[in-house]
Amino acid sequence: MAEMDVEAVSAVQQHDVGSILSGPDRDFLVRNDGSQVKIDSLKGKKIGLYFSASWCGPCRNFTPKLVKVYNEVSCKGDFEIIFISGDSDAESFDGYFLKMPWLGIPFADSKARDNLNSLFKVEGIPHLVILDEEGKVVSVDGRRIIDEYGVLAYPLTAEWIKELDEEEEEAKKEQSLKSLLVSPSRDFVVANDGRKIPIAEIEGRLVGLYFSLSSNDDDSAQFTPKLVDFYGKIMAKGENFEVIELPLDNEDDLDEEYREALKTRPWYTLPIGDRSCQDLADFFEVCTLPTLVIIGQDGKTQNYNVAEAIEEHGILAYPFTPEKFAELEAIEKAKLDALTLESVLISGDLDFVIGKGGIKVPVSDLVGKTILLSFSAHWCPPCQTFLPKLIEAYTKIKAKNEAFEVIFISSDRDQSSFDEYYAQMPWLALPFGDLRDASISRKFKVRGIPMLVAIGPTGKTITTEARELITVHGADAFPFTQEHIEEIKAELEEMAKGRPATNEEPKMEDSVPEVWVCEDGVCRKA
């Protein structure tokens, strides 16, 4: 079949499905059992193009939702999903594809996958593009549509999705605690002693809707005790506040231990397995856990997630107003400005990092140097992609300035993975499983990796965005100060003035590796 011309096709909103899905010598798609399905068989069907990858946490969270919708509507015979993988090896592709009941572009056809990414300008995953029966783009926001409406999004027409969006906007305008929590069969929440508390009795309070999973979810398990402590202190002060927990587990999936744990909560819950739990998770577009949505005393949404604020600031975050968050932001900036290398890296007797062979290097030996804290992991493909660029920059900088070092802070899951990954690096590291890992990550609000934090010779934080600087400028980014970066930009602009005019776009792909950062429920290209 003819090869796809990306530039020509991307200029239109209606696509020849056969052309964009095929390859020069391929007119079929594959199932996860290896069987082939002719692309021609998709004629007259709605298509969902699903851009995803096994290494992407948000993708792994979204895929089961998409599977559920697919299983409910695929029997109608007019809808199909095509998996376009972002994995870098066949083994990862195969393992992830096994969880999908739909079709896929063969992993071996990387050119077709790259073309589709370019055609639909995919900048983050998971990403779902919906095409109608004629190949016309219905929406490039399919992930949101499935998240919010689930199977109700079918038949996936532009008109129907618009109607759903308008209904949701209207519902938000008329939103109240009752409209959120009352269902046709229930007008109450449940206290820890089993009492049914009418929702009408809670109206007029500031309410936190706490979305959680069972104890198998480490983040929720770690946050819950902090929320219990916060709740106790707030209630002791007599504040007009309440928490309602919404367990997102299916009733059959909950073990007895977690059921008993729910009974010890000091707040209210919705009944286990209540459909409203998932409906509200969709309504508030919950994509990370833990999530604590704040509903104001007027019943309107005040904040979509204050879990992190409670983790970091406790009762100081209350009552979660914009003014309060501005105050907390100022506090955070002051804390960041006050950090020194010693306060970041030393905790009790842990006053060292390690070099090759496990040799201990005292933190005191690093004082006065420019330090990059490299948050990374062996399991993270974007980290592995970025690593050669960082090694190249490190080597060049060290050749000119010995007062420079990188410290690897690992998110690996076992010692062997840490050892294998660290063996590739020419710099220092915190030992695997070091107790300082978590506190350092919290100090710098590490939400995605790879991430590089630059600390200057005085011990002050220069930037938390050194990865971007290395990606664009390489070793020239040193010493990572704003003044230096402005100088580089000025020099580049001056050089550009002397170049002849050209209509060609500058090509960055040869010099800048593809780097992804996963945060806030999506993995995006840096």
**Strand order, largest beta sheet:** 5-4-3-7-8
Biggest β-sheet description: 5 strands, mixed
CATH architecture of the largest domain: 3-Layer(aba) Sandwich
| Helical amount | 25-40%
CATH topology value of the largest domain:
Glutaredoxin
Q: How many E-type strands?
A: 24
- What CATH first level of the largest domain would be assigned? Alpha Beta
Mean residue pLDDT: 87
Pairing-aware structural class of the strands and helices?
alpha/beta
CATH-level-4 superfamily name of the largest domain:
Glutaredoxin
Write down the domain tally: 3
Oligomer: single chain
Q: What is the general shape?
A: globular
> What share of residues are in beta strands?
15-25%
What does this structure look like?
Residues 17-166, 330-497 form the Thioredoxin domain. The chain has three domains: 17-171, Glutaredoxin, CATH 3.40.30.10; 178-330, Glutaredoxin; 341-493, Glutaredoxin, CATH 3.40.30.10. It has a five-stranded mixed beta sheet with strand order 5-4-3-7-8, with helices on both faces. The protein contains 19 helices and 24 strands. It has 526 residues and is α/β, with parallel strands linked by helices.
